[in-house]
Amino acid sequence: MEQRTHESGAAAGEAGFDVAATLAACAGGDRTALHRLYEAEADRMLGVARRILKRDALAEEAVHDSFVLIFRQAARFDPARGSGRTWIYAILRNRALNILRGEKRTDFVDDYEPFGLEAEDESPEAALVRLSESGRLRACLERLEAPRRTAILLAYVNGLTHGELAGRFGVPLGTMKSWIRRSLLSLRECLA
């Protein structure tokens, strides 16, 4: 019975859950420790991320990215400098702020109107055709490899998240994030 109480306490994120010890286990490569940390903190972290980012999809991305960073950087946690919970929420806050900064750096206002965002069922190819043939955005999009162009258009025309795109293309989430990031960088360079 005592073990069950501890497990449910961890799942509910109660004060009895030892974040510092869990981070130490993560530093040793223990993926089950990361899962326990996720069970204990993910809901609250998602709430914090939603308050910062104001959009569910971005908040989910911030939480996911934070857990990846937490696992990779767990060895950097120093309990002498603060609590484990404070450390993981600092990572989340920094990730959310980086996402906010990233959203503002890409602006396709000139060709935004021809996208026709009200047509949710429109294919990426149809959206590309609807862009002005002489538009810079269309010319830059056509320079991208077909799968990456389609991913960008599905994200911006149909509003698909990184996770939805990864599922549709059958690639890992990290790969899809890289595709989107690199494609946006290519578009920015082309449009500059």
Automatic annotation (TrEMBL):
Keyword Signal in record: no
Keywords, in A-Z order: Sigma factor, Transcription, Transcription regulation
Domain RNA polymerase sigma factor 70 region 4 type residue range list: 136-185
Gene3D superfamilies membership: 1.10.1740.10, Winged helix-like DNA-binding domain superfamily/Winged helix DNA-binding domain
Gene Ontology biological process terms in this record: DNA-templated transcription initiation
Transmembrane segments: none
Stretches assigned to the RNA polymerase sigma-70 region domain: 37-106
Superkingdom of this protein's organism: Bacteria
GO molecular function, one term: sigma factor activity
The keyword Transcription regulation is annotated on this UniProt entry: yes
Record-stated family: Belongs to the sigma-70 factor family. ECF subfamily.
The protein's name in its UniProt record: RNA polymerase sigma-70 factor (ECF subfamily)
